[in-house]
Amino acid sequence: MSKTGASTEVRQFTVGEDDDGIRLDRWFKRHLPQIGFGMVSKWARTGQVRVDGKRAKPDDRLETGQVLRVPPGGETPGGRKPKPRRELTADEIAEAHAMVIKETPSAIIFNKPPGLATQGGSKTTRHVDGLLDAFVDDEDDPRPRLVHRLDKDTSGVLLVAKTPGSAAHFSKRFSGRSARKVYWALVVGVPAVLEGTIDAPLAKQPGSGGEKMHVDEENGALAKTKYRVVDKAGHKAAWVELEPLTGRTHQLRVHLAAIGHPIVGDGKYGGKDAFLTGSVSRKMHLHARRLRIDAPKSDGGGKIDVTAELPEHFAGSMEHLGFDLSLSTAKPLNFDPPERTPAEKKQAARQHAKQYRKSRKGERRSRGPAAQGKLGKKSGGRPARKTAPKKDGRR
């Protein structure tokens, strides 16, 4: 967005690519939040706000390159005040920039360390949101915005939108579940089923003040998690790759505890059983390893695809338990696989048939030669009952 003029004069704004397709009233909410909806509606009715010289309504959609005429003043008691910028220390600015693993025209992607909250709350004054002013060079520049969250003790990929338009774009991808996320976790014990989907509705646990979730089959919200055991350390622990198909609070933590394999270090949901003896850290071992999401037009389209390295305590536990990181490609379990050539498809079909015959070989042997030689008998050894043919020749 570019602009000319001052608040005491008629102002003109050129619609930027980031605002393409936005409603006129939403444009004001983004760029002139101190002007309330009532004032925008009044200006529209009286023809004082115009788009390319023509009268406009609050629900009209804007296009890149159009010029908005905005009359002077308009600040109302109901209008929002821009959020004041916080002065950061040199150490806070350095901390913010040290977390960055990728930056695009629309987004900043962090590798959030464990122990740092994503957003402020009761008694929480140190958080990622409080460090975002480190990426604002001019007071007229938009402040980066959070579009998804990670628990305080969960590390890994955290995407922040750089503009209001990209924030709307990414928020739709996260809420629409088209964004693909992969988490790594160390869990206590080894799941009996090495790959599958945990389907367990979740709700806030009564008496916890909303701070804790639990499985609630009757009243819980839909919650599904795909998982795969990548490797195991005897019966002591397992390295699990997770993909949440829904986005409930503490979903991965509750689901793994619900199947009897809490995340190592997650005392909130696993109790004392969530901690291993020896050199394994007592911190929580849950890491947002990878994110793949559609990029907005301002990035030229395509995909944003980022991977975050493990924090020190997690990497140390993996080494202590003897896990080889190359065993995982960190690809979400339901990413579209690469297209195979006809020869590769044929080879895969042969391999599948070979494995099927091999699995049936033991079954045939267990029946014994007598059962294999008498096709007219059932598996119990008794003759199969014959039925008279029907009139039309069918049995």
What this model shows, in words?
Helix content is 23%, strand content 22%. It is of the alpha+beta class and 395 residues long. It folds into two domains: 11-70, RNA-binding S4 domain (Structural Genomics Hypothetical 15.5 Kd Protein In mrcA-pckA Intergenic Region, Chain A); 90-327, Pseudouridine synthase (2-Layer Sandwich), CATH 3.30.2350.10. The strands form three sheets. Strands 6, 7, 8, 9, 10, 11, 14, 15, 16 and 17 form a ten-stranded mixed β-sheet that branches. A five-stranded antiparallel β-sheet has the order 1-2-5-3-4, with no helix packed on it. The chain is elongated.
Q: Number of helical segments? A: 8
CATH class of the largest domain: Alpha Beta
Encode the helix/strand succession as letters: EEHHEEEHEEEEHEEEEEEHHEEHH
What global shape is seen? elongated
Largest sheet: 10 strands, mixed
Unreliable runs: 370-388
Family: Belongs to the pseudouridine synthase RluA family.
Catalytic activity: a uridine in RNA = a pseudouridine in RNA; uridine(1911/1915/1917) in 23S rRNA = pseudouridine(1911/1915/1917) in 23S rRNA
Region (Disordered): 52-85, 332-395
EC number: 5.4.99.-
Overview features:
395 residues; alpha+beta; Structural Genomics Hypothetical 15.5 Kd Protein In mrcA-pckA Intergenic Region, Chain A; Pseudouridine synthase; 2 domains; 5-stranded antiparallel β-sheet; 8 helices; 17 strands; elongated; RluA_PseudoU_synthase; 23S rRNA pseudouridine(1911/1915/1917) synthase activity; isomerase
